[in-house]
C-alpha cells in the first residue's frame, strides 16, 4: 500500500477527516509508511469513541498531519479536547514498537544518524541498501 492508497482508505473509513480538496485530489495528511496504517486506524477510532461518548463534533477537530519524525509517529492536531492529545501521545510511544514498513514488532534503529522503527528483517534490508550505496563503511 503506498501513501496515496493509505490516505484514501483513511478518508473512506473516517469521513470526518477533511484534508482533501473538492476534487478529492490533494494528499496531505499522512507522511509515513504503511506499516503504521493499523496504528493510525486504532488511534483515529479511539478519538472517535471519545468524541462520540461526549456527543462532540468530530468535524471540529483540525487534524493537520500524521508523520514520521525522529523515527516515531507524530500527529499534528489542534482544536480538540485534552483527551485527544493524550491519545496521540500514547500512539506516538506505541509506534516505537511497530515497524513502519511492514507493521511487525520493531524497535528504534539508528542508521547513519537516521532514526527509524524497523523490525529485524526490514532493518537488515535497509542496512544492506545503505551499504550498497556506500553510505555505511
Ligand atoms: Zn518490518
Tell me what the structure shows.
It is a single chain. This protein is of the alpha+beta class and 137 residues long. The chain has one domain (3-104). The protein is 39% helix and 20% strand. The protein has four helices and five strands; from the N terminus they run H-E-H-E-E-H-E-E-H. It has helices spanning 3-13, 37-53, 82-94, 120-132, and strands spanning 30-31, 62-69, 72-78, 107-111, 114-118. The strands form two sheets. The protein has a three-stranded mixed beta sheet with strand order 1-2-3. Strands 4-5 form a two-stranded antiparallel ribbon. Strand 4 and strand 5 form a beta hairpin. Helix 2 (37-53) runs antiparallel to helix 3 (82-94). The chain binds zinc ion (ZN). Residues 99, 101-102, 104, 106, 118-119, 121-122 line the site of zinc ion.
